[in-house]
Design a protein that fits this description.
heterodimer; A: alpha+beta; 60s Ribosomal Protein L30, Chain: A; 2 domains; two-stranded antiparallel sheet; 4 helices; B: alpha+beta; Rossmann fold; Neuraminidase; five-stranded mixed β-sheet; four-stranded antiparallel β-sheet; 6 helices; globular
C-alpha cells in the first residue's frame, strides 16, 4: 500500500513535469520558431488589414525580393479587394532591415515594393492605381536588434493612397 | 619613433652641413609615440582683451585659440600637447625668443607661440613654430580676419603646423555635414546638420519635417547634394549652404538617391530606381544633360568618382550579392574588384587616388576597410556591430563614418554616432555631435 502510494506520487510528479516541459517547449516554439520560416516572418504581430481578411503586408528573406507562397496568397487577397474597390489607389512601401548599408537598402526596398506591385498587376490591377516608395531601413516597425525583429521589418506594405 | 628621428638627424647631419629641421612626423604608419608639443597661449595685451570682451564676449581669445590648436593636434593622434601648467616661460616673452632649455626641460620637442590683437573690429594673429632641440624657428605666419572667425584661425594654425611637420596638407579648417537623428527608431526625426570638424559651430539646415539622408559636399564646400523625402517623393536635391536655396536634381519619374559630386564639381552622380531596378546616372549641373552610366537588371548604387574624373567605383549585386566594381566614367570596362568573403558596399575613392574605402559585412559584423583600386591589398581598419559609410578627410589620411549600437528587444540602447579612424587603423575616436548622428561627409579645406 505504502509502496503503491509512493509509486503513484512519483508517477504524478513525472507526469506533471512532462506537462510543464511540454508547455515550455510549446511556448518557445510559438514565440520564435513559429513566427519565422527560414528567415521570413510568418507571424501576425505587426500586420494590419486593408479590409476584413486582407492583410496589408508581406515579408521577405534577407537580401531577397522573392515572394513566398504565403506572400502571393496575401497579394491575391489584396488584388481581389482592389478589384472590388476600384476607386481606391494604393502605395506599396518597400522596407529593409537595419543590417545593410543605407543606400543599398533603399534600392532593395524599391525592388521589394515593385515585386509586390508586379504581382498585383498580374492579378488585374491597373499599374496606374499603384505607386511605390522605398524607405530602405528608415522606418522599421520593430525596433529590436534580433533576427525576429529584422524579419518583421523586411516587408512591403500596401497602404491606401486616398 | 622620436629616437629614430634623432638617429636620423645625426646621420643626416654627418652627411650634410646644411641646417635641417629636426622634427618631422611620419604619418604613413600608426603613430604610437606622438610628438610632445607645447602650445603656448597666444599673447594678448590689455587693450585687446577689452576689445575681445566687447566683440566676442571672450576675455582671452588668444588663450582660446591656443586651445583649439591643442585639441586639433591631440585628436590627430600625431601630437601629444603638454599641459600648460608645466610651462615655465610667459607667452609674450616666449613669442619673442623662447628659452629653449626651459621648453626642453618639460620635454617639448616643438613649441607654438603667438600674439593676437583686436583693433578696429579686426583680429590680427601671428604665430611661430619652434624646433626646441635644434633651437630655432621653423615657421612664422601672420594673418588678419574678422574677430568672429577666431576658431577658424585656430584651425588654420593647426593646418600650417601639421603641414610643416608631416609634409602633407592638414584637415582641420574643414567642416562635416551629417544627418542629425532624434527620437525612437521607429519614428526617427532626421535633419541636415553642419559643424566644424572639431564638433563646434553646429547649425541645422533642415527642420526635420521630412526625412533627409546622405548629404555630400561639392569640392568648394559651398554646395551639398542629398536625398530628401520632401512631399514623400524621395529625390536628390542640391542645396547652396550659403544662400539656403535648394532644387531637385533632374526630372526623374521615380526615386533618385546615393548622390555625390564629381571631383570637378560639374556633375552629380546618383542612382535612379525604376520598376525595381536601380542604375547609375549623371546630371551635368551646367547644361542639365542627364546621362545613363549603367544599364543592368541588378542594383547599381553608391557611385563615387576617382579624383581625376576618369573612373567610377560603385556597388552592385550583379554577381548575386553586393560587391564593389570599377568602370570608366562613361560606363565601359566594368570590373569587379572585391573578392573577399562577405558583402561589400559604399565604395568611396580616396582624394589621393590610390585607395577605395568601403563597408564590409561578414558573419554578422561590419567593417570599415580600404583596398587598392584594383581590389588588391584589402585592409580592414575597424570591426563593429554596425558601422558604414566612410568619408575621407581632404588629405586622404583619416576616415569618418557612423556607427550604430545594438538595441534590446524593446528597442532601448540604440544610438548612432560619428567616429573617425586613421588610414593606419590607429587613432579610432568618437566625433562629438550635439545629437545622434549618421551619414557624415567631410568638406575640402576651406582656406587655400
Amino acid at each position: 500500500m505504502n509502496f503503491s502510494k509512493s509509486f503513484r506520487n512519483t508517477f504524478l510528479v513525472i507526469l506533471l513535469s512532462l506537462i510543464v516541459s511540454a508547455c515550455a517547449t510549446k511556448k518557445t516554439t510559438t514565440t520564435v520558431e513559429g513566427q519565422m520560416q527560414g528567415d521570413v516572418y510568418t507571424g501576425t504581430d505587426t500586420v494590419k488589414y486593408l479590409a476584413d481578411g486582407v492583410p496589408d503586408r508581406v515579408f521577405f528573406a534577407t537580401n531577397e525580393s522573392i515572394l513566398t507562397t504565403k506572400s502571393r496568397d496575401t497579394l491575391r487577397k489584396q488584388a481581389n479587394w482592389l478589384r472590388e474597390n476600384s476607386s481606391i489607389n494604393v502605395v506599396v512601401e518597400g522596407h529593409a532591415d537595419e543590417r545593410g548599408t543605407r543606400e543599398y537598402n533603399l534600392a532593395l526596398g524599391e525592388r521589394r515594393a515593385n515585386a509586390a506591385k508586379d504581382y498585383l498587376i498580374t492579378y488585374g490591377i491597373s499599374a496606374d492605381r499603384i505607386s511605390v516608395i522605398s524607405y530602405g531601413k528608415e522606418r522599421p516597425v520593430d525596433s529590436g536588434s534580433n533576427p525576429l525583429s529584422w524579419s518583421k521589418n523586411r516587408r512591403s506594405v500596401t497602404v491606401k493612397a486616398n | 619613433m622620436i629616437r629614430i628621428f634623432n638617429l636620423f638627424f645625426i646621420i643626416f647631419f654627418l652627411l650634410s652641413a646644411k641646417a635641417y629641421s629636426l622634427i618631422e612626423i611620419d604619418i604613413t604608419r600608426g603613430n604610437l609615440d606622438p610628438l610632445p608639443i607645447a602650445v603656448s597661449p597666444l599673447f594678448q595685451d590689455d587693450s585687446s582683451k577689452r576689445n575681445s570682451i566687447n566683440e566676442l564676449k571672450i576675455e582671452n581669445v588668444g588663450s582660446e585659440i591656443s586651445l583649439v590648436v591643442e585639441n586639433n593636434l591631440k585628436i590627430s593622434g600625431l601630437f601629444n600637447p603638454i599641459s600648460k601648467e608645466a610651462f615655465l616661460q610667459k607667452p609674450d616673452i616666449a613669442h619673442l625668443k623662447p628659452r629653449f632649455e626651459d621648453w626642453a626641460l618639460i620635454k617639448a620637442q616643438a613649441l607654438i607661440t603667438g600674439k593676437v590683437t583686436i583693433e578696429d573690429k579686426k583680429l590680427k594673429v601671428e604665430f611661430r613654430l619652434w624646433d626646441i632641440l635644434a633651437g630655432r624657428e621653423m615657421m612664422a605666419l601672420a594673418f588678419t580676419t574678422v574677430p568672429s572667425n577666431w576658431r577658424r584661425v585656430g584651425h588654420i594654425i593647426s593646418d600650417k603646423v601639421y603641414e610643416r611637420l608631416t609634409g602633407e596638407k592638414g584637415y582641420f579648417d574643414t567642416r562635416i555635414i551629417y544627418v542629425s537623428e532624434e527620437g525612437p527608431k521607429t519614428a526617427r526625426v532626421k535633419k541636415l546638420a553642419i559643424m566644424d570638424q572639431d564638433g563646434f559651430n553646429t547649425k541645422y539646415l533642415t527642420l526635420g519635417n521630412e526625412l533627409v539622408l546622405t548629404p555630400r559636399f561639392n569640392p568648394t564646400s559651398q554646395m551639398v547634394t542629398y536625398l530628401s523625402y520632401f512631399k514623400n517623393l524621395p529625390r536628390v536635391y542640391l542645396l547652396d549652404i550659403e544662400t539656403g536655396t535648394q532644387e531637385v536634381v533632374g526630372d526623374f519619374p521615380g526615386m533618385t538617391f546615393a548622390p555625390r559630386f564629381s571631383p570637378d564639381g560639374k556633375k552629380i552622380i546618383m542612382s535612379f530606381a525604376k520598376d525595381g531596378n536601380s542604375d547609375i546616372y549623371t546630371m551635368d549641373l551646367e547644361n542639365r544633360i542627364v546621362e545613363r552610366i549603367t544599364n543592368h537588371p541588378s542594383i547599381d548604387t553608391s557611385p563615387s568618382y576617382s579624383p581625376d574624373n576618369r573612373f567610377i567605383t560603385f556597388n552592385s549585386d550583379r554577381s548575386g550579392f553586393q560587391q564593389i566594381y570599377v568602370m570608366k566614367s562613361d560606363g565601359s570596362n566594368v570590373k569587379r574588384i572585391s573578392f573577399g568573403k562577405g558583402l561589400y558596399g559604399t565604395p568611396v575613392w580616396s582624394p589621393r587616388g590610390d585607395l577605395i574605402a568601403f563597408t564590409k559585412l561578414h558573419k554578422g559584423k561590419f567593417y570599415i576597410g580600404v583596398m587598392r583600386t584594383d581590389g588588391s591589398g584589402e585592409r580592414l581598419l575597424t570591426e563593429n556591430y554596425y558601422q558604414e559609410a566612410p568619408s575621407w578627410s581632404p588629405n586622404g589620411r583619416v576616415l569618418i563614418f557612423y556607427r550604430e549600437t545594438k538595441s534590446n528587444d524593446k528597442g532601448e540602447g540604440f544610438s548612432a554616432k560619428l567616429w573617425s579612424i586613421d588610414l593606419t587603423g590607429y587613432n579610432e575616436r568618437q566625433v562629438q555631435t550635439e545629437t545622434d548622428a549618421s551619414d557624415p561627409s567631410w568638406s575640402s579645406l576651406l582656406s587655400n
